[in-house]
Amino acid sequence: MLAYTLLDCKTMDPLEGAGHALAGYLSLRSLCDLELSLLKMCIECRLCQSLILCAHSYRTDPSNEYLMSSAKAGWTRLEQICSTSNEDLLSKWKEIQQSYNNKK
After folding, report:
1. Do residues 74 and 50 lie in contact, with contact meaning Cβ atoms separated by under 8 Å?
2. Which among 74, 97, 93 is positioned nearest to 85, based on CA atoms?
3. What averages of pLDDT result for each successive group of 10 residues across the chain (104 residues)?
4. Taking CA 25 as the corner, what is the angle to CA 22 and CA 27, rounded to the nearest 5 degrees?
5. For this UniProt entry, what's an example GO CC term (predicted)?
6. Which end of the chain is less packed: N or C, by CB atoms within 10 Å?
């Protein structure tokens, strides 16, 4: 879910958009610190998997231009999340989650 939130978010910084989606999830379910610390790597892995599948699909059907536009966004988001430290990302997401807790 968070990987696709990164890909589809167009109204704000995609990393912040993923933080809002995560805050919604955490309002219903909890994650331990270890699980939270692994989210960034899981998102990176999911984006890589999508990009590999996209490259394979494009290789079998080069006329499918949609695949290349989708891949372009994927590479951009992968670079963005890879260039952000896990600590900075978790801190940003924690601030977003706390902003919802403060509204209660």
Report:
1. yes
2. 93
3. 93 97 96 98 97 92 83 93 98 96 75
4. 110
5. cytoplasm
6. C
Please name the residue that has the structure tokens 């892995």: 45
Task: Give pLDDT, residue 85.
Answer: 98
15 to 52, 69, 80: CA distances (angstroms): 22, 20, 8
| Tokens describing residue 34 | 């270890």
Q: What is the DSSP string of the chain?
A: -HHHHHHH--SS-HHHHHHHHHHHHHTTS---HHHHHHHHHHHHHHHHHHHHHHHHHHHH-TT-HHHHHHHHHHHHHHHHHHTS-HHHHHHHHHHHHHHHHHT-
In the block, tokens 């590479």 appear at 75
